[in-house]
Amino acid sequence: MRYDEQPFGRPEDIGEPAVVASYAVSGPDYGAILERAAVFAIGQTIGTWVRVPGISENMIRSYQGRVISVLDSGQGADGQCSTFVLRIAFPAANFGNSLAMLMTALVGNDVSTALHARLIDLEFAGGYKPGYRGPRQGIDDLRALTGIRSRPLVLNMIKPCAGFTPEEGAKLFAQAAMGGVDLIKDDELLGSPGYNRVLDRFLSYEAAAADVYEKTGRRPVYLPNITDTPSRMMEHAEALYQAGAKACLVNFIFSGLDALKDLTDQYGDKLFIMGHYAGVGVMNAWNNGIANSVMLGLLPRLAGAHAVMTMAPLPGNPASHYDFRRTVQAQRLPLGKIAPLVTAVGGGITPISQEAYQKELGKNTIIGIGGAIQGHPLGATAGAEAAMAAVKAAAEQIPLEEAARVCKPLAAALELWGRKS
């Protein structure tokens, strides 16, 4: 194959609508990378790893992928390079508005046969205007639901995760609600099993919320988990909306991006829809798969999720922090007419985390606190009070130790998780 012919091209030569995908590629040396990249571009569009009959000039011109650039990390003493960034333009005509077909093209068959590649970014080129509406609700809509304007919103994930009835779950819900949290969601492991149907659970929790409101004047917004088959997700959404629900939760990693898009197309104006990341780790290997900035940032944003649960970075791990920041950028940076989605950060967060997260993410964020509420030594209500005191103090730039002097639950939390007042 001549290297000045198809499937190679220049970025400025992209005249037809296309998605330009960037990959981190590990392993091939300089002598192999261009040939492997070419095989990849052909194999993910019109052909395969060997030449096959029937490919016409029109197929090549209109539907074949093109290698746009190959950047390397520098040649070593042995003449090899271990890391490349490969950019390939995929004609948009091949997948239309199907996210499933887009992902099949970008990381489908040939990722395992021609090239070990990790998808790290997407760009729209050649006048391509994605046929996705994106998020139809944002932080302002969520603030209107909760009445909270000047600080991050606090989300509790009910623990234990599963194995209880709606009535038992309502007691767990009430304990966190009495502590003043803004949002309460199901754990992603609890869908609609026979012992705890999602509509039954919603009705029980709403009764608990009404009781809390009578006692405190505040009630949290509940996000029931409707993850299921695509048709049953629609059924759950309709039943919950008719029952008065304002929001819901969906694990789009395994229910599917197109199922999420269909849901947001139909209910994006009616329900605040939060996406969950459960399972994304199996797609994010160091030398293969899909980067979190794509899987938790760009793709659910295109599909219309209003917020996405995003795993907190590992303490003291620079690579994890870099990955987290890239993901937040993908969720928030301008993307044509597609609105940003709301970052919901969770995973091991305690009251002592608040100052750092608010400094890094700002106030238009959802702070997810699960085990640190239910696992508080004074009980879940005290755990919620500690979380709320910490979030409010951080928002007002009051040292947590100072706030803990007038909040016994916060003082207990700081002592338990490493900071004594």
From TrEMBL:
Domain of life: Bacteria
Domain (Ribulose bisphosphate carboxylase large subunit C-terminal) ranges: 138-417
Residues covered by the Ribulose bisphosphate carboxylase large subunit ferrodoxin-like N-terminal domain: 18-124
Pfam families the UniProt entry points to: RuBisCO_large, RuBisCO_large_N
InterPro entries: RuBisCO, RuBisCO_lsu_C, RuBisCO_lsu_C_sf, RuBisCO_lsu_fd_N, RuBisCO_lsu_N_sf
Protein family membership: Belongs to the RuBisCO large chain family.
Protein name in UniProt: RuBisCO large subunit C-terminal-like domain-containing protein
Organism of origin: Ruminococcus gauvreauii
